[in-house]
Design a protein that fits this description.
The chain is about 20% helix and about 30% strand. It is of the alpha+beta class. It has a 7-stranded mixed β-sheet with strand order 1-2-3-4-5-7-6, sandwiched between helices.
Length: about 150
């Protein structure tokens, strides 16, 4: 059964996505209180949103200070009625087309989310949890090369 595409390509600075980003636990806040217009950061990036801008997914390829290699899911937020694992699976397919043969990875802060199973939606989408964590205690999840 083929599922219809749920993601739309957009740009860093999409105001609806910026609002979603601001509600994400990892949203960076400027100390001087200035308002942001961009939210992804440097490097190659792909910003995805659902039609109604109720879910956001950001892929980013950059030099990661943690030493992780591959394509980073920099932000994922789902306020839609779509299953998170389905959205992640479709985002993986998009990244596979753009960056073939690249590992996908992300970080989850287990202290900042309510789940007792941090990253459960990624795990349901076929990702795995690494035993190692970042120096700051973040859980590292990955999906190997497809």
């Amino acid at each position: 059964m083929t599922m219809r595409p749920l993601w739309w390509l957009t740009k860093d600075g999409d105001m609806d996505c910026l609002a979603l980003y601001e509600r994400h636990y990892s949203a960076y806040r400027y100390r001087d209180g200035r308002q942001r217009t961009l939210f992804v950061g440097p490097g190659e990036k792909v910003v995805l949103r659902t039609e109604h801008a109720d879910a956001l997914f950001v892929w980013r390829k950059f030099i990661d200070d943690s030493g992780q290699q591959g394509i980073n899911c920099a932000v994922f937020r789902n306020e839609s009625g779509h299953r998170s694992s389905c959205l992640i699976h479709q985002a993986d397919s998009i990244a596979d087309c753009l960056w073939p043969d690249c590992r996908h990875y992300t970080y989850v802060d287990p202290q900042a989310i309510r789940s007792r199973n941090p990253g459960a939606c990624f795990l349901r989408a076929g990702w795995r949890r690494l035993k190692q964590r970042t120096k700051g205690g973040l859980v590292i999840l990955e999906r190997g090369v497809a």
